Fold this sequence. Notes:
Elements lengths: L2 H23 L2 H7 L6 H25 L3 H25 L5 H32 L4 H23 L4 H11 L9 H7 L4
Helix pairs in contact: 1-5, 1-6, 3-5, 4-5
Amino acid sequence: MNTSTLKVRLAILNFLEFAVWGSYLISLGQYLANIGMGQDIFWFYAVQGIVSLFMPAVVGIVADRWIQAQRMLSLCHTLAGAAMIACGIYCMMMPTPQFAHLFALYTISVAFFMPTIGLANSVAFNALTKAGLDTVTHFPPIRVNSRLHMLDAVRQLHTVPDGLQSVFHVRSNRHHTGHVCPRNAAMSGQQR
């Protein structure tokens, strides 16, 4: 594989790593507030920091001793993705999602996602080294370009066209009780 192809593949890896995270992280608090879990938003964001303290070390030890980093990265992404999909299915199927169930699924998702940040860097450094490229010179542009593209993708994802905005407000403004949230009703022009 030539170096330009390798750099493009690593840029895509870094882009996807942070685009997936950013796509839900920004809107998570608003969604939780809309389903009546506004008082619990803190826990969903805090658990990311808590699992970041120990899960990267645990997964790193496993990757160093028993499983190749690329395979561990794939396994962690699969488990995190499955848990996040389960969160989505749970929230769509339940008229009133319960904190304990949603939080447990979300915790599993972030517990396996957080180590992938370090694993992705490890895989990238290993690939650059095997290709005979200096990681100090070649990795920063890959990382910066993929981050800039990720920020643009997340911005576009959270920008809803004017014609569809009322549809999304109507669907997301209903609390679990079926009443319209007063703050969001004022924004979308709905009556209580």
